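Example record used in the benchmark description.
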Amino acid sequence: MIDPLLPDPYDAVCGWCGKSVGLTKLGVAHLIRTWDSGPGGDRTSRVSATYVSPRQECNRPTLAFFDIARVSGTLYFGGVVSSLPAGTAEGMEGLSPEIAADRREAWSSYFAGNRRAAIIMGRAAIQRAVRGLGAEGSGLKQEINDLVSRGVITASLGQFAHEVRISGDDAAHPEELGEITQKEAEESLAFLDDFLRVAVAMPEVAERRRRERKPDSQ
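Model output (structure tokens):
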């Protein structure tokens, strides 16, 4: 049976309301296609299932796609493929419109199942943010190191940025990289968000608060 293998609830960002929720499964899964995926009759099946947002303000359906692997006669959950409508990241206050657009496209690609595109757009967001911080150098690697050496960002934030950079570089050269897993893409975008939040968004929000504060309370 396939249905017991599917997540219920399915933790995701709802493509309708943009909130992180546990989507509730409705009905049964439907088989889309099956293909050979290994020796000895191992096969993978692509299935779909309908879920609904538990939020009363939304309560709209999402069509989710999953892979189920049959290995040596045993069924295994192969992971989330994509969902319709695709989710997107919740907004992050303090980002420029350009950086916010790159980040939004990266997460939208991830939720749509386009993991390689997600990682490449994550790298683009990091590069735009690093250059917005005044980085100098002949490439993104040197630019990140320049910010660290001048104390603009911490060494830890520099490592976060390098993780996104390396993932993006690998994704842009598919002959050197196998299939990108959901975990790899999600981790890369998590590093992106941590970097943007601490290095860009929070300082901008703090500066806005300073400007809005009454003179006698500064």
